[in-house]
Write a structure and sequence with these properties.
The complex is a heterodimer of chains A (105) and B (230). The longest helix of chain A is centred in the C-terminal third of the chain and has 29 residues, at 68-96. Chain A has helices spanning 2-14, 31-38, 43-48, 68-96. Chain A contains four helices and no strands. Chain A is mainly alpha-helical. Chain B has one domain (10-226): Arp2/3 complex 21 kDa subunit ARPC3, CATH 1.10.1760. Chain B is mostly helical and 230 residues long. Classes of the chains: A mainly alpha (105), B mainly alpha (230). At the A-B interface, helix 1, helix 3 and helix 4 of A face helix 2, strand 1, strand 2, helix 4 and helix 6 of B.
């Protein structure tokens, strides 16, 4: 278990490497990038662009993205929060499942 | 490959959601039947691994970025049904907390990355293993084809938008680029770099998992890989 935990910690600490790749993913542009590319913002895109507000938009702390170190910190925090919430969800799933069968797996 | 909010028309989102509902129901039933409570931490680990591997954006020669998904890896270790659930959980968290992929587009994004990718990847893996191929290589090739099929699906969903949904004067209401641009762009990113990243990660982890001993908690996590009854 210790080994797995360390592997995840190493991965989390390394995530800011993912920030180094320049540009956005194709087809994942913000509205301003869309306007730059096609000259206008399609009506429906504008309308639906913000259905909900995210707590850590784009894996960062809002306003705390002035330099790479701030972005990297926000990115690492996002990784930790994401993993914690995933763990919580599966913990809840495990709670909800009744102890019925024990199979040799 | 995470389609953002507003890129797909609500109709498209509705159709993709309607397609995913029975898939989620079926995968849930199948997982409940084949895995037991002990496997839940393993699924959590799979979801967490997929979540984190998607944060490693890799640069694409055309100036964009892409990332691996890890879907086939989970399919090979825990079975494709568990992979659908694990990757879906990661995608839901990404859209709700981080705005990566639209909430309304969850049906489409889960279809591409949590259904097409693991199932195609797993079928190719099974086929190669049946032909007496080596498991890490079979998983690597499967994952490469799986992620590219997912990219093809995403490119198709995006590229259909201007064709199907435009204002009276012809201007696009949602995603503005058609199939001729969207499919090659999505495939280029994944055939070149992201698919290779996916294949290398999948192949290496499967290679490692084959070697862990019974005392390692990961031994249980990879029962499907060993052909153990689950």
């Amino acid at each position: 278990m210790k080994k797995i935990l360390s592997a995840f910690i190493v991965l989390v600490v390394l995530t800011p490497l993912g920030l180094l790749a320049p540009g956005s993913a194709w087809g994942e542009w913000g509205l301003d990038e869309i306007k730059e590319k096609v000259g206008f913002i399609p009506q429906g895109m504008k309308h639906f662009s913000e259905v909900i507000k995210n707590i850590l938009p784009d894996y960062g702390i809002p306003g705390f993205d002035k330099n790479f170190y701030q972005s990297a910190l926000g990115y690492i925090l996002s990784a930790v929060v994401g993993i914690a919430v995933i763990a919580l969800i599966f913990w809840l799933i495990a709670k909800l499942i009744p102890e019925t069968k024990e199979k040799a797996a | 490959m995470h389609i953002p909010e507003g890129y797909l028309s609500p109709q498209t989102c509705g159709v993709m959601g309607a397609v995913m509902l029975p898939i989620w129901a079926a995968t849930g039933r199948k997982v409940a039947k084949t895995l037991d409570k002990k496997n839940i931490p393993m699924m959590a680990m799979g979801a967490a691994f997929s979540f984190i591997i998607m944060m490693f954006n890799v640069p694409i020669p055309d100036g964009t970025t892409a990332h691996a998904v890890g879907a086939t890896l989970i399919a090979v270790t825990l079975g494709p049904w568990a992979a659908t659930i694990a990757v879906s959980v990661a995608l839901v968290i990404q859209s709700l907390l981080f705005g990566d992929g639209g909430v309304l587009a969850l049906g489409a994004n889960c279809f591409n990355m949590a259904f097409v990718a693991p199932f195609v990847g797993y079928l190719i893996y099974l086929l190669i293993v049946k032909l007496k191929g080596n498991k890490p290589i079979a998983a690597a090739i499967g994952s490469y084809i799986g992620i590219n099929c997912a990219a093809l699906a995403a490119g198709t969903e995006l590229g259909l938008q201007p064709l199907l949904f435009h204002a009276a004067n012809g201007t696009a209401l949602y995603f503005p680029y058609g199939l001729k641009l969207a499919i090659p762009a999505m495939l280029f990113a994944h055939l070149t770099i992201a698919g290779i990243a996916e294949a290398v990660v999948t192949g290496l982890v499967v290679f490692y998992l084959q070697r862990v001993g019974e005392d390692n908690i990961l031994y249980r996590a990879s029962g499907n890989l060993r052909g153990l009854p689950q």
